[in-house]
C-alpha cells in the first residue's frame, strides 16, 4: 500500500504542539492530536482511532499488543469503523467481516484547531476496489474531534443513482482494569437479543459481564456508562443516529479463536458499540446523508 509522505502531511496539515504526523507500526501514517483536555491518536489506515487519553484519566481505549498493522487486516482495538455492513458479509461473497472501511487507506481532508478543540476530517469514496465488494457510489466521511469529550461523526452520502442500503457501527474497545470490576449502566429495562438467539429479553439493573457477551441492546436513552470500580473511572458513551448498541466481550473460550488477542485480554477490554443493523439499518435515496455519531467522556467516580 502507498502511504502518504509524512513530511508533506506535517507541512500541509500539521500544527506545532497540536497536530503531528508520524510513521507508526509497519509504516502506517498516524496523526497525534493534542489539546488542553487530552490527546488522541488516529491511523489514516482505517480512519481508526488508536488511543484517547483525557488529561488526568489515563488511556481509555484498549489496543491489542498482538494486533496486525497490515494492509487488508483490521487493527485490533481502538475504534474500528465498521461500514458498509456490520457483521458478516453476504454469504459466499468472500468479503470481509464488518465491511471494508476499516481496512482502507482514507484521504485526509482537513485538520483544524482552536483553544477548545482539535479536529481531523477523513474521507473515503468508491473506487475500483470498493466497487468489487459493494457496487455503489458513495462518500463516507469521519470527523474526529478532541475537546472535553472525544467525538466521532460518520457521515454517509449516497452518490449513486439507486437507493443505498447499509449497516454500520463504531466498534470501540474500552480499556478496563479488570472486567470483574466493571458494571455497565444505562441499559436497565432495555430490550436486547443475545447473539445468535433472536429471543428478545429485557435487562434488569446494571449489566455485569460474567461470560461471553454479544448482545444488541435498544436502550431508552442513548447513553451508556462503563463504571470501573478499580480505576474509579466512569466512561460515558453517548450516541445518535441509531437506537442500537452492541455490548461485546469474547470471554475466556471464544478469545482463543482470535490470533490477534492474548488469551487473557478479555479481562482488559469491553466493547460498547453504537450500530445500525437489523431494524436500524439505513436506506438513503440519491444525495441523501446519514450521520452516526458517538461521544466518549471519561470521569473520575
Ligand atoms: O461486535 C461484536 C462482534 O461482531 C463479534 O461478533 C465479534 O466477532 C467481534 O465483533 C469482532 O469482530 P472482528 O471482525 O473485529 O474480529
Share of helix among residues? under 10%
Terminus-to-terminus distance: 44 Å
Overall mean pLDDT stands at 97
Radius of gyration: 19 Å
- The structural class is mainly beta
- Would you count the extended β strands for me? 22
Q: Are any ligands bound, and if so which?
A: 6-O-phosphono-beta-D-tagatofuranose
**Structure annotation, total helices:** 3
Strand percent estimate: 35-45%
Shape: globular
- Note the run of SSEs as H and E: HEEEEEEEHEEEEEEEEEEEEHEEE
Low-pLDDT residue intervals, each spanning 5 or more residues: none
For the biggest sheet, the summary is: 8 strands, antiparallel
In short:
With 301 residues, the chain is mostly beta strands. It has helices at 6-13, 128-133, 251-254, and strands spanning 19-23, 29-35, 38-43, 48-54, 81-82, 107-113, 118-125, 138-146, 150-158, 164-166, 168-170, 173-175, 182-185, 191-194, 200-202, 213-218, 223-228, 233-240, 244-249, 269-276, 282-284, 289-300. The strands form four sheets. Strands 5, 11, 12, 14, 15, 16, 19 and 20 form an eight-stranded antiparallel β-sheet that branches.
Give the key terms.
single chain; 301 residues; mainly beta; 8-stranded antiparallel sheet; 3 helices; 22 strands; 6% helix; binds 6-O-phosphono-beta-D-tagatofuranose
What features would you describe in this structure?
With 301 residues, the chain is mainly beta. The protein is built from 3 helices and 22 strands. It has helices at residues 6-13, 128-133, 251-254, and strands at 19-23, 29-35, 38-43, 48-54, 81-82, 107-113, 118-125, 138-146, 150-158, 164-166, 168-170, 173-175, 182-185, 191-194, 200-202, 213-218, 223-228, 233-240, 244-249, 269-276, 282-284, 289-300. The strands form 4 sheets. Strands 5, 11, 12, 14, 15, 16, 19 and 20 form an 8-stranded antiparallel sheet that branches. Strand 14 and strand 15 (200-202) form a beta hairpin. It is globular and about 50 Å long. The chain starts with 5 loop residues before the first helix and ends with a strand. 41% of the residues are buried. The mean pLDDT is 97. The structure holds 6-O-phosphono-beta-D-tagatofuranose. 6-O-phosphono-beta-D-tagatofuranose binds at residues 74, 87, 97-98, 171, 214, 246, 248, 271, 273. Residues 74, 87, 97-98, 171, 214, 246, 248, 271, 273 line the site of 6-O-phosphono-beta-D-tagatofuranose.
Amino acid at each position: 500500500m502507498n502511504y502518504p509522505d509524512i513530511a508533506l502531511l506535517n507541512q500541509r496539515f500539521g500544527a506545532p504542539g497540536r497536530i503531528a504526523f508520524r510513521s507508526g507500526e509497519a509504516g502506517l501514517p498516524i496523526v497525534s492530536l493534542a489539546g488542553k483536555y487530552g490527546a488522541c491518536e488516529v491511523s489514516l489506515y482505517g480512519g481508526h482511532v488508536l488511543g484517547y487519553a483525557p488529561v488526568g484519566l489515563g488511556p481509555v481505549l484498549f489496543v491489542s499488543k498482538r494486533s496486525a498493522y497490515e494492509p487488508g487486516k483490521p487493527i485490533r482495538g481502538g475504534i474500528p469503523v465498521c461500514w458498509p455492513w456490520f457483521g458478516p458479509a453476504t454469504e459466499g461473497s468472500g468479503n470481509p467481516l464488518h465491511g471494508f472501511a476499516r481496512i482502507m487507506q482514507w484521504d485526509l481532508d482537513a485538520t483544524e484547531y482552536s483553544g477548545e478543540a482539535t479536529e481531523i476530517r477523513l474521507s473515503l469514496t468508491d473506487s475500483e476496489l470498493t466497487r468489487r465488494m459493494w457496487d455503489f457510489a458513495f462518500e463516507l466521511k469521519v470527523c474526529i474531534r478532541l475537546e472535553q469529550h472525544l467525538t466521532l461523526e460518520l457521515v454517509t452520502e449516497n452518490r449513486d443513482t439507486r437507493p443505498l442500503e447499509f449497516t454500520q457501527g463504531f466498534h470501540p474497545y474500552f480499556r478496563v482494569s479488570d472486567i470483574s470490576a466493571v458494571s455497565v449502566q444505562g441499559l436497565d429495562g432495555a430490550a436486547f437479543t443475545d447473539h445468535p438467539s433472536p429471543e428478545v429479553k429485557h435487562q434488569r439493573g446494571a449489566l455485569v459481564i460474567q461470560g461471553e457477551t454479544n448482545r444488541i441492546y435498544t436502550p431508552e436513552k442513548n447513553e451508556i456508562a462503563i463504571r470501573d470500580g478499580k480505576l474509579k473511572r466512569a466512561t460515558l458513551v453517548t450516541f445518535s443516529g441509531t437506537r442500537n448498541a452492541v455490548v461485546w466481550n469474547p470471554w475466556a473460550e471464544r478469545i482463543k479463536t482470535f490470533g490477534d488477542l492474548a488469551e487473557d485480554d478479555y479481562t482488559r477490554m469491553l466493547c460498547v458499540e453504537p450500530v445500525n443493523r437489523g431494524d436500524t439499518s439505513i436506506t438513503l435515496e440519491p444525495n441523501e446523508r446519514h450521520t452516526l455519531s458517538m461521544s466518549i467522556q471519561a470521569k473520575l467516580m
